[in-house]
Design a protein that fits this description.
single chain, mainly alpha, 0% strand, globular, 19 helices, 2 domains, 516 residues
């Protein structure tokens, strides 16, 4: 009887996790679809050069946003989770209130820095027209910081899906304002178009902040501090502020360094292209960063649910000291992930034209095919990072990412002016490989797991290549449509995997047992 109850409870927990992960996956796919759809629309309005400027502005704004948020979201999640675990309900709203005060101060400081620094930064980038969009966008930083804090609270209370809907509202607001304004009176100059886009982006940051504030006012009613005397509240607030600083300060330093390197990396690319003699440097940068890379990262949204379930599963095994089972599980997860990666890579290799056809700009398909082999490296690196976080190695992951970005900046600085596009591709492949190998080295130091054996690598690669060739060569006209060929490729790929026993029903059952 007790065994049956335990099984039913286990199944209920599994279904609950699966439902939450599935909802987040659908939401992540929807958000990425909205993002790519908006970029398709913008590329038709402002062209490839405009998309390059758009990406440059976002890279600079990203640094300001990181400075404004200061790791407060994670700090709120950590302290609220601790308070809930200890049933110290009164501390939850106190944590949020203190964090919001920090967010308001940091947001205003970041706004001032970006607003008054817009002109010198634009001149340094060689694009003076970026000053006005940066000033307009800077006003949104306090609202972005407030949203980050409140999202941290909702992650702690488990209301993740409701809070993530704020991002949907944000995207719709921005898209609605821009499309309505462009339809009413299309800007004739690039500076006016960019100013309009980032004015809408600034307004769209207010909407999620307001939405999350309303949700928080409703949600916080389940926590109360009315029963505590004022002296206890004052002492608690002081300790909370100190705890927030201890958690957020190291994280903020690392995140700001990462963001600074990322911004520098994005500014080096168009400048390096220009120095190498490429006449349309900004257009190339716009196609690469604003079109090809978003398409390449789109399928990664499918890993959201997998990653969400993966971290607690690893924490569970690590906490119980089941090192042997943990090693087997990590090897199994890497193998399944590689199967997924090979399928995605083959789609971009064999169908770059139809996939990139959503953009009217020429040349996206060429870059998509050149970047396709990055998919296994990028996706495997993402899953490896989740494994390291499950083992409590978040700080090591941040240091590793910092060294990766430093290496990227150095390679871009020296190689781009000499090799141009070839230098950019070499840098991408070199640094992504370094990040993945460094992650595996960290894992190997903590857990004894098997690297991808030759058979694990060869079988999925051969299966995806064979399926890709069959699905794209010598088909009758009735099967020439892209959706038909894509379905044919997927059916052939998974059929070949099962035939060569690289993927079996036991693998799926083992994965379900691990995550459940």
């Amino acid at each position: 009887m007790q065994t049956a109850i335990a099984k039913n409870h286990s199944r209920h927990v599994w279904l609950q996790r699966l439902w939450g992960a599935g909802a987040l996956t659908v939401l992540a796919l929807f958000l990425r679809t909205l993002s790519i759809s908006f970029k398709i629309y913008l590329s038709g309005q402002i062209g490839a050069a405009g998309m390059g400027l758009y990406q440059l502005i976002y890279s600079v704004y990203g640094f300001g946003c990181t400075l404004a948020c200061g790791g407060l979201g994670l700090g709120v999640t950590t302290l609220c989770s601790r308070a809930i675990a200890k049933k110290q309900w009164h501390r939850v709203p106190q944590v949020v209130l203190r964090a919001l005060a920090f967010a308001a101060v940091l947001g205003c400081i970041a706004t001032g820095l970006l607003y008054f620094g817009a002109a010198p930064v634009s001149k340094m980038l060689g694009q003076p027209i970026l000053a006005t969009p940066l000033r307009l966008f800077s006003v949104s930083l306090p609202f972005a910081a407030i949203s980050g804090c409140l999202q941290g609270y909702f992650y702690a209370t488990g209301e993740v899906v409701r809070s993530e809907l704020s991002q949907v509202l944000k995207r719709f607001t921005k898209m609605g304002i821009v499309m309505a304004a462009f339809a009413a009176s299309p800007p004739r100059q690039m500076d006016a178009a960019l100013a309009l886009i980032f004015f809408a982006s600034s307004l769209s940051e207010i909407v999620p902040a307001f939405y999350l504030s309303v949700l928080y006012r409703v949600s916080r009613k389940k926590f109360t501090s009315a029963q505590l005397p004022p002296s206890a509240l004052t002492a608690a607030k002081g300790s909370i502020a100190l705890a927030l600083v201890k958690i957020c300060l190291p994280l903020a330093v690392c995140q700001n360094l990462q963001s600074a390197f990322h911004t520098l990396e994005n500014t080096l690319v168009p400048q390096g292209f220009a120095k190498s003699g490429i006449a349309d440097a900004m257009e190339r940068y716009g196609v690469l960063s604003g079109m090809a890379m978003p398409l390449l990262s789109y399928p990664a949204a499918l890993l959201v649910s997998f990653s969400m379930l993966l971290i607690p599963a690893i924490v569970r095994l690590h906490t119980r000291g089941q090192r042997e089972k943990l090693g087997r599980s990590l090897s199994h997860i890497l193998r399944i992930t590689f199967v997924f990666c090979c399928g995605v890579m083959a789609v971009f290799l064999f169908f770059p034209g139809p996939v990139s056809g959503i953009f009217s700009t020429k040349g996206v398909a060429v870059y998509l095919r050149l970047l396709a082999p990055l998919c296994p490296l990028i996706y495997m690196d993402h899953v490896t990072d989740c494994m390291l976080k499950g083992l409590g190695l978040q700080f090591h992951v941040m240091i590793q990412n910092l060294t990766d970005m430093m290496l990227t900046v150095v390679l871009l600085y020296f190689l781009l002016p000499v090799w141009g596009l070839a230098g950019y591709l070499f840098t991408l492949y070199c640094t992504t490989t370094y990040n993945l190998v460094a992650g595996w080295w960290l894992l190997r130091r903590r857990v004894d797991f098997s690297y991808l054996a030759p058979g694990w690598v060869a079988k999925p690669l051969l299966c995806c290549l064979i399926a890709g060739f069959v699905a794209t060569r010598g088909l009758p006209p009735v099967l020439s449509a892209f959706p038909v060929r894509l379905v044919l490729f997927l059916v052939l790929y998974f059929a070949l995997l099962f035939l060569c026993r690289d993927l079996t029903s036991k693998d799926l059952h083992r994965l379900r047992a691990l995550l459940g």
